[in-house]
Amino acid sequence: MNPTDATDPNAAAQPAPPRAATPGDALESRLLAIEAAARFHNVELDREELRYPAGQPPAPAALVEWVRDSGLWAKAVRMKFAQLLKVEVASPVILLLRDGSAAILTTADPARNIVWLADPRGNSGDPPVAVDELRLSRVWGGEVLLLRAIRELTDDNAPFNFLWVWGVVRREHKLLRDMFIGSFALSILTLVPPIMVMTTLDRVLTYRSVSTLGLITTIVVVALLYETILGYTRRKITHIVGARVDAKISLHVFKRMLRLPLDFFERQQAGEITYRLMQVNKIREFLTGKMLSTMLDMVTLVVLVPVIFLLQPTLAWVTVVCAGLIALIIMAFLGPVSRSVGRWISAETQKSSVMVETLHGIRTIKSLALETQQRDLWDRRTATSVQLKLEASDMANWPQTLVNPIEGFMSRGIILLGALLAIANPGSVNPGMLVGFMMISGRVAAPLIGLARLMDDMQEVRIAVGFVQSVVNQKPESANPSAGLRPKVEGALSFNTVNYTYPGTKTRALDGITFDVPAGTMLGLVGKSGSGKSTIARLLQGITRDYEGFLKLDGNDMREINLPHLRRNLGVVLQENFLFRGTIRENIIAGRPGLTLTDAVRAARLAGAEEFIERMPNGYETWIEEGSPNLSGGQRQRLAIARALIHDPKLMILDEATSALDPESEALVNANLTRIGKGRTMVIVSHRLASLTDCDMILVLDHGKALDLAPHSVLLERCTIYRQLWLQQNRHLEAPTTPRGGAVALAQGDD
Ligand SMILES: Nc1ncnc2c1ncn2[C@@H]1O[C@H](COP(=O)(O)OP(=O)(O)OP(=O)(O)O)[C@@H](O)[C@H]1O
Ligand SMILES: [Mg+2]
After folding, report:
1. How far away, in angstroms, is 532 Cα from ligand 1 center?
2. How far apart are CA 572 and CA 737, in angstroms?
3. Which ligand has the minimum distance to the alpha carbon of residue 527?
4. Which residue is closest in CA terms to ligand 1's atom 17?
5. How far is the CA of 35 from the centre of ligand 2 (A)?
6. HSE-up of 116 (CA within 13 Å, CB side)?
7. CA 212 to centroid of chain Cα atoms
8. Which residue owns the Cα nearest ligand 1 atom 12?
9. Using CA atoms, how far apart are residues 715 and 721, in angstroms rounded to an integer?
10. Which residue from 253, 298, 595, 559 is spatially nearest to 450, judged by alpha carbons?
11. Model confidence at 155, in pLDDT bands (50, 70, 90)?
12. Integer Cα distance of 643 and 574 in angstroms
């Protein structure tokens, strides 16, 4: 089927036009078109990353997001046919047709008023078809998707710094321009009251002119009206700019945070990270608040400074010098103030991390009765913070104190100086002018002082930027989330002399690990605590990629595989699994697009969770709170297994998934493992050997070395360490060499 067939009026008139496509067909054509366009820029899109509500076709915005997530530039726009003719087809342009399908614009021919379209579903050899405006308008409403490669650093990859944030603000240039125009107009209007006072005092009172008073009143009323409207608009625009910048920055920061590798989060305290990221609010507040308003006030200066010099040069000079002095004082204290503020802020950080840590570990704290200890710690941190805050405020108090008399002189002293001038040189100053001058000079000083204060705030913002940078500018997990292979995962694993040393440690956690297992193997990992079992599981999940040697999944180097793709194809169950707030169904589906209750039920059945879910008051719709207090450990674990199974992964990793369970729950889960393991590779870490006896292969680890790889019965015969571990755990069994099913062994009272 060709979209251009449809543009043939005759074809459209037929009772059963060839393009009577099903919605799925149309969507397929759209996706193919976008994928082809992305491929043009050497980017492979992943359909799993396309997010849209189930049951309806993805909106253009969702398509744009999909493309952007893979590092390309994309935009959905509306175009007229005439604009389409002018498009320079340097890269593919996609027309989104009304029926949900798409066509690719290959060339535009303005001379003949036609465009050439290709069908994304056609073979690459199919020639494009010429279409004119009338025929196109029957199937196309004007929606176009543009795709381009990004040459410069994309927003996502640009390092976070003050300039970047300022760039975000600057992108609102249209609104900013309006604001500047508004401010300029406002500053002219601020001249009205002083001029009015001057005129009233000098003319109206002296000559008792009622008509002048009437005129002045009218001007004042009109000016007041304008001022009110302008003021309202300026504030409104400020809020809009603030909100937009806020949204952009917080989206960016969150996105960047999610791209950081897991070990970054393991190294840093959650409280610390939260605090640092929250500093972004300070930056945004500063940029769209103080900085913007000071800059706008500067506009006022352009109007007001000449006016005061016109009114009275001597007094004008005094005003400017005073303002300059104030600025100097504030600048002189910049360094000391910012240093002591910095000390206070770092104390605050430490204090808040106690709070977060306490909240996270509240169960442990309560059960170990550590409340007093935590309170003491909090007390100490609070005391330090309060002390440093006092020191910082003390320091900041100095410039304010010194500035105060100068400010006082500016507002009150000038009137005396003016009077002195009037006495010494009659006619040079009259009362109306003096009052008018006072009113204007007040507005001159404020922005100048504001500018100096801005420098002060700048220091704080610089610290805030540093904090945010320390999180956001960390090396992301992968430089380009869309890069890498996306092979079909079967589950064959191959380790070849893999060494790994954790950063900051000296001994190898993995030391020359070499083994191969074919797809579909049920592989057990055993070894003493610290022997490297979890490290192998981490390598398989791509959490750590800076190992030495080769680790291959189905023959593909693990480091070459696209990370999101890898993780989507894994099922991982850990000892502790986080269940989100939501229903049981939502927790099992975990936001994966296109999955329904039926899938959740299938996964739950396979995980052995169906039995207890059905006994729950609301079944699959039972609500789970954070921390899932209404579920037992075994139930939680079975839910986690169901969640891992929902997308039928070909590689499952269970790291001590059953260790925290009571024997009965463990037996239940283990009994399901063989069933779960059908058709996929399972990597099961367990320190209870009895639960691994059914494994096809067991890898014995010791101090990061792979000692042996064989089934249970063989290991019992030939691997000393394995035999020792087995005997330790199963001394009560009369015939330890008889392999038993894990569940059976447990039912008999393992451990
Ligand atoms: N995040 C880390 N930073 C530094 N060293 C680590 C880290 N995680 C593990 N190690 C070290 O690496 C080695 C292997 O740890 P691993 O977690 O793989 O052991 P394990 O076999 O899973 O032990 P267990 O049975 O106790 O879970 C240990 O010596 C451990 O001290
Ligand atoms: Mg472990």
Report:
1. 6
2. 32
3. 1
4. 534
5. 41
6. 12
7. 62
8. 509
9. 9
10. 298
11. low
12. 12
Q: What percent of the chain has pLDDT over 70?
A: 92
529 C-alpha to ligand 2 centroid (Å): 7
- To test ligand 1's pocket by mutation, which of 262, 499, 502 has the most ligand atoms within 8 angstroms of CB? 502
Q: What is the pTM of this model?
A: 0.68
pLDDT tens by residue, 262-308: 888 888 877 778 888 888 888 888 887 888 888 888 888 888 888 88
Class of domain 3-148: alpha beta
Q: What backbone torsions phi and psi does residue 189 show, to the nearest 5 degrees?
A: -65, -30
Where do the domains of the chain lie?
A: 3-148, 162-472, 495-569+696-751
Let me know: does 176 contact 241? Beta carbons within 8 Å.
yes
Pairing of strands 510-517, 129-132: unpaired
Atom of ligand 1 nearest to the CA of 527: 21
> How far does residue 677's CA lie from ligand 2's centre (Å)?
21
Question: Is the domain covering 162-472 a CATH 3.20.20.70 domain?
Answer: no
Which ligand 1 atom sits closest to the C-alpha of 525?
21
Q: How many helices and strands, by DSSP H and E, does the chain display?
A: 30, 18
- CA 298, CA 273: separation in Å to the nearest integer? 37
What's the CATH superfamily of 495-569+696-751? P-loop containing nucleotide triphosphate hydrolases (3.40.50.300)
Distance 563 CA to ligand 2 centre (A): 22
Tell me how far apart the alpha carbons of residues 678 and 60 are, in angstroms, rounded to a whole number: 40
Q: Are 377 and 499 in contact (CB under 8 A)?
A: no
| The dihedral formed by the CA atoms of 240, 245, 251 and 252, expressed in degrees to the nearest 10 | 170
Pair type for strands 705-710 and 556-557: unpaired
| Exposure class string for 446-484: b at 16+ Cβ within 10 A, else e | bbbbbbbbbebbbbbbebbbebbbbbbeeebbbeebbeb
Contacts of 520 (CB under 8 A, 6+ apart): 491, 679, 680, 681
405-415 pLDDT, tens digit per residue, is 988 888 788 88
Residue 675, burial from CB neighbour count under 10 angstroms (0-12, 13-18, 19+): exposed
Long-range residue pairs from 423-428, CB within 8 A, at least 24 positions apart, any chain: 428/312
Closest CA to 229 of 277, 182, 284: 182
What is the torsional sign of CA 580, 583, 585, 589?
A: negative
- Give yes or no for a contact between 574 and 636, defined as CB atoms under 8 angstroms apart: no
Q: Using a 6 Å CB cutoff, which residues line ligand 1? A: 266, 502, 505, 509, 527, 529-535, 687
Residue 134 burial by Cβ neighbours in a 10 Å radius (0-12, 13-18, 19+): exposed
Distance from the alpha carbon of residue 500 to the mean position of ligand 2, in angstroms: 15
CB atoms within 10 A of CB 207: 8
Query: What are the percentages of helix, strand and coil residues in the chain, rounded to 5?
Result: 60, 15, 30
Give 725's contacts (C-beta < 8 A, 6+ positions apart). 526, 528, 689
Residue nearest to atom 4 of ligand 1 (CA): 502
The dihedral sign for the CA sequence 394, 397, 399, 401? negative
Element holding 437 (H helix, E strand): helix 431-472
Find out whether 682 and 641 touch, Cβ atoms under 8 Å.
Answer: no
Q: Tens of pLDDT along 94-151?
A: 999 988 889 888 888 888 888 888 888 877 667 888 888 889 888 898 899 988 876 5
Which 3-state string (H, E, C) describes 88-156?
CCCCCEEEEECCCCEEEEEEEECCCCEEEEECCCCCCCCCCEEEEHHHHHHHEEEEEEEEECCCCCCCC
> What token pair was written down for 90?
């340097």
